[in-house]
Amino acid sequence: MESQRPHVAIFPWHGMGHLIPLVEFAKRLTLNHAFSVTFIIPKWMTAVSPGQIAYMQRLASSAVGAIDFLELPGVEIEGDHPNMNIRTRLSLLMEETKILVEDALRSFRFPVCAFIADPFATAMLDVTAKLKIPSYIFFTSSASLLCILLYLPTLAQEIEISFKDVDFPIEVPGLPPIPGRDLPSHLQDRSDNVSFNRSLQHSSRLREARGILINTFQDIEAEQVKALLEGKVLSAAEMPSIYPIGPIVSSSRLESESDKKCVEWLDGQPDSSVLFVSFGSRGTLSDDQIKELALGLEASGQRFLWALLNPPPSSIQCENSVSTTSAEPDMRLLLPEGFENRTKDRGLVVHSWVPQIPVLSHPSTGGFLSHCGWNSTLESILHGVPLIALPLINDQRTNAFLLVNEAVAIEAKNGPDGLVSKEEVERVARELMEGDGGIKIKKRVRKLMEKAKNALVEGGSSYNSMATVAAVWKELDGHSC
Ligand code: UDP
Asked: I need a labelling partner for 391 at 20 to 30 A (CA). Which of 114, 164, 184, 253 fits?
């Protein structure tokens, strides 16, 4: 660790969708703004995702010397048992971790001038408040979601029934009127009071931070950013400073043999001919949806590259071990019989991590059928790849709503059984890759790509936001801690 650099600490979250942009952000702080960064990682987080934390350390390796990883010791939680609800366990683990974070922050040889927490780690704001360390949130999702979360207490008062049952578009400052079913899935149902109240409490903690850095850029969410800055979501007195600094995406390179296999396969395909299909890091498709998707892709006649990952472990242990409730399923068995054989001349199904950035930047990739995780969304736009939106859970519906509204995605519509049918998959795949709708969307996404790139270069809106917050932290360095 270099001594003279201003020092910040980052408390991450273990999902890939959180780790990847956080590491990339840390790299920019160290390489472009001469900071040193310490990631504080509880042992239980490493236990939940050993592969992910290792991946994160590899991603950070190009900033060696300026990025450190501090692993905290293990903690025990009272009344722990294997069937404990995962959210309850994580929240208890966070509570027990606070004292360790406090000790770590007190013991740094070079005190930190700012503490940056993942949005799921707002519990750590108790520690920074106690130590009087300025705290910031790195918001890994959209400004739209931030508007919704910060406005949630007001919304919950205005509308007393479950949002999914509301039959009129809901007004949230900054967003176009949004159907209740397009709000994040975990906020839709109020019959489970405990879970809704937890979301309410969590969202109200975000405003305790001194600032919120958002992984977005002005041109994709201009109204949302404006609403946040102009006191329409929260009053100016309640509102943390807002810094749209995105799109921050991984600068990943090819690592494994399976990485190379994907790219070599793409090398053999015509330009813009391949539909890339991926549902993010967690493989959350149901067995029935996998079958419909496969049959739809087959019927569409389009070339495709499909990342069909195993779902994550379904429970975690407190200490060093990760327990899975069942053995990993063989995803091949979930595909319709003979599917891979019948489509082998124009399709590749990959059952391991796919190098998404090299795939999206490959000239053969012409479309992305995505779950609309926020990172995938930004990565697709930054590489000018038009989307088919097939959202599953959490904020993905809201992101899909935004993308369809911005005309950079075609929506794959759910049938009455909640599945996207094979006929619908066939329709949207053809439309995006060959239809008039696809041509319009491609033009629009190319324009947005230029704007995203411009936001990041010197003088661009995100570049300036990043420089502003870096300057604030440098100013704080040595004064408030
Ligand atoms: N990703 C990847 N290869 C895969 C699956 C995912 O590189 O096979 C990366 C993807 O590029 C993105 C992140 O993992 O950076 C997933 O984040 P996103 O927000 O899109 O979805 P989540 O996994 O959080 O649902």
From this structure: 253
Q: Are 11 and 83 found together in one domain?
A: yes
Pocket test for ligand 1, best of 25, 259, 376 (most atoms within 8 A of CB): 376
Contact present, 359 and 262 (Cβ < 8 Å): yes
The reply to whether 291 and 380 lie within a common domain is: yes
Q: What is the pTM of this model?
A: 0.93
Q: Is the shortest distance between the CB of 375 and ligand 1 below 6 Å?
A: yes
Ligand 1 centroid – CA 76 distance (Å)? 31
If pLDDT is split at 50, 70 and 90, which confidence band does 324 have?
very low
Return left, alpha or beta for 446; rule: phi > 0 is left, psi -120 to 50 is alpha, else beta: alpha
Residue 397 belongs to domain with CATH number: 3.40.50.2000
Q: Residues 6 or more apart from 35 whose CB is under 8 A from it?
A: 5, 6, 7, 8, 29, 66, 470, 473
Residues 103 and 60 in one domain: yes
Model pLDDT, residue 54: 74
In a domain, 1, yes or no: no
Distance 368 CA to ligand 1 centre (A): 13
Is the CB–ligand 1 distance for residue 433 below 6 Å? no
